[in-house]
Amino acid sequence: MTFVVNESCIRCKIMDCVDVCPVDCFYEGENMLVIHPDECIDCGVCVPECPVDAIQPDTEPGLEKWLSLNAEYAKIWPNITVKKAPPPDSKEWEGKPDKLPYFSPNPGAGD
Ligand code: SF4
Ligand code: F3S
């Protein structure tokens, strides 16, 4: 198994998660992060760090498309290991449903 970042992260991108990951397996897109499923050691430490509950184990039902998205973009986005400032409008996107249309495939800046 692995942990995956789901749609709650889109445009919130709070980044508290990256500071605690012992294996630095978060990768940065323009408006969300993903976890590399082959690098995650399933420790679960990042889960309570995310204020919008965007990190779940892939054993939860309905996460197949998010596991695919994490795996696909972790290969091409840059690694991020240190928290940066969230987007200025991050709070406005907390808890909004159906954010997939806002997903950006563009990479973030990374560390
Ligand atoms: Fe990193 Fe652990 Fe979270 Fe996996 S579960 S992304 S290893 S902190
Ligand atoms: Fe996203 Fe939550 Fe991390 S919003 S960037 S998964 S702290």
TrEMBL record:
Its cofactor is [4Fe-4S] cluster; [3Fe-4S] cluster. It holds the Pfam family Fer4. Residues 89-99 have a biased composition (Basic and acidic residues). Residues 83-111 are annotated as: Disordered. Residues 1-30, 31-60 form the 4Fe-4S ferredoxin-type domain. Keywords: 3Fe-4S, 4Fe-4S, Electron transport, Iron, Iron-sulfur, Metal-binding, Repeat, Transport. InterPro entries: 4Fe4S_Fe-S-bd, 4Fe4S_Fe_S_CS, 7Fe_ferredoxin, Fd_C, FdxA, RnfB_subfamily. Ferredoxins are iron-sulfur proteins that transfer electrons in a wide variety of metabolic reactions. This is Ferredoxin. It comes from Bradyrhizobium retamae. The lineage of its organism: Bacteria, Pseudomonadati, Pseudomonadota, Alphaproteobacteria, Hyphomicrobiales.
